[in-house]
Each structure stands twice: as C-alpha cells, then as structure tokens.
Amino acid sequence: MTASQTPTTAEELRGAGLRVTAARVALLETVRDGDHLGVEAIASGVRDRIGHVSLQAVYEALHALTAAGLLRRLEPPDGPVRFEGRVGDNHHHVVCRSCGVVADVDCAVGEAPCLTASDDHGFAIDEAEVIYWGLCPACSNAPSS
Ligand SMILES: [Zn+2]
Ligand SMILES: [Zn+2]
User: Fold this and answer.
1) Cα 101 to averaged position of ligand 1 atoms, centre (Å)
2) How far is the CA of 18 from the centre of ligand 1 (A)?
3) Given this model, what pLDDT does residue 4 score?
4) Distance 77 CA to ligand 2 centre (A)
C-alpha cells in the first residue's frame, strides 16, 4: 500500500492538460490494454467500450494523447503506424519480418540516448530509437523442408 493512489484515466488526461471525453478515456484504456495496436484495432476497441465513434475522432484523440506524452507512436518502416501506452522508459522494439508482430525490448542502459553515435556531426543527441528485426518464434518455427 502506498500513500498515493493510482490516478484514474480521466485524472491522467486532466493532469496532462487535456479535455476529458469518453472517447479519449476509452482510447487510452484500449491502447494500454493492447499490444502495439494499429489504428483500426484501436477504433474497434474504443467502439467496444463506448459505442460508435468516428475514425476521425479516433485520429484526433490519438494525436492529442501522443502530443501530451500519454501515448507513444511507433512507425515500423514496413508496417502500419501503431500506438502503445508504455511511454517514457526509452524501450525499443523487435519486429517480425514475416508477420509484423511487435514486442518490447527494454533499453539496455535505461535512459536515452542509449547508443553512442560513432559520429554525432555536432548534434546534441538526446534519443536513439532502435528497431530490431528478425523472425518471431511462431514464424521461425514454421515448417520448412
Ligand atoms: Zn512472425
Ligand atoms: Zn513498446
């Protein structure tokens, strides 16, 4: 037991300076319950919770929550945009080349930037976003000759 209670989703939205709407609450909960969901999956999760919302409203809420730092946007070069609720820990991702499944990889160092550029070109670098590519267990165990 700790003194501070976990804030509700609505309180978190308010704390981030966002207007609280049913769609935003449902969206944040959907993304946090999911595993690197794409926009379609998020929209259907929101509809399961609160009924019909337009795709436009889903995009609007995703944009607002990402800008506020409550969600993180992930753009694998080969696949659709995905969103996750795990933010601020500088973790990385491993993506399956075959089926596109995404998994989290903890940051090796624990803070950004965890990779030192061999040449920083004079930049003050504050982040390194790493995507590991390979085959997931299901795909690498797929029958071969
Ligand atoms: Zn796979
Ligand atoms: Zn992740």
Assistant:
1) 6
2) 37
3) 67
4) 15
Encoded amino acid at 92, one letter = H
Q: Tens digits of per-residue pLDDT, 16-29?
A: 999 999 999 999 99
Separation CA 117–CA 120 (nearest Å): 6
pLDDT digits (tens, 9 = 90+) for 64-97: 999 999 999 998 777 789 999 999 888 999 999 9
35 CA to middle of ligand 2, Å? 8
Q: How far is the CA of 126 from the centre of ligand 2 (A)?
A: 19
20-42 burial: b if 16+ Cβ within 10 Å, else e: ebebbbbbbebbeebebbbeebb
Helix axes 55-67, 39-50, angle to 10 degrees: 110
Determine the Cα–Cα distance for residues 59 and 104; give it in Å rounded to an integer: 24
141 C-alpha to center of ligand 2: Å?
A: 24
Residue given tokens 């969600």 in the structure block? 71
pTM: 0.82
